[in-house]
Every structure is written in structure tokens, then in C-alpha cells.
Write a structure and sequence with these properties.
The chain is α+β, with helices and mostly antiparallel strands and about 110 residues long. The chain is about 35% helix and about 25% strand. The chain is built from four helices and five strands, in the order H-E-E-E-E-H-E-H-H. It has helices spanning about 10-25, 65-70, 85-90, 90-110; strands at about 30-35, 35-40, 45-50, 55-60, 80-85. The chain has a five-stranded antiparallel sheet. Strand 1 (about 30-35) and strand 2 form a beta hairpin. The N and C termini lie far apart (about 35 Å). The mean pLDDT is about 85.
Amino acid sequence: MGTIGNRLTTYSPLAAEEFVRKLKPQGEVSVKEMFEGFGIFEGGSMFARVKSNGRLFLNADDSNRKAFETAGSEQHGRMPYFSVPGEVLERDGDLREWARQSIEAAHWVK
């Protein structure tokens, strides 16, 4: 199912829920419906976004931005969020590590 304007597809909440499930070992990970998708939070800081089409973006700063750029990730507009490469999404351990780095980046901003 696709998107109509900025409305959520049926895949978007499933993608957000699955991502949160995989990251439970990271700490208090929660999800909140937001404009154009969902925000994913840990300890009160948003470190990830799931767009209305179900695509996952993680927070990046100087400590982890190079990995996203090297992997060919797309930046989410002018926001400090980058798409997660497919090979990272396929391996839970890698996904947790990329998320951990994004959580650290998000907490640093706070």
C-alpha cells in the first residue's frame, strides 16, 4: 500500500513496531505517532524516524554520519536523520549497533 499525501500506510506502524521490538535491549525505547510517520525515542530523545512509507531513518552527527554517507544513505531533508542501509536492516546485531550510535548522538544534542 502506498501513501496518499502524508497519511500513514498500513506498513508504517508495523515497521515502527518491529523496529522498537528489535531494539528493546537498548533501553526504554518507545514510539510516538508524529507528522509523516513515527518518532522513535530512548530516554526522552528522538533517535529515529519511520516515515509514512515505512522507511527507517536514524539520527546522525559527526560521530556516525560518515558511515551513513559511505553506505549511500539518503538524508531526510535538512534533518539530521539518514536512511538505514538494507544490509543493516537485515542483520539485527548491526541494526542495534547503528541504533546505539544514533541514541548516543541524540542524547548528545539534548
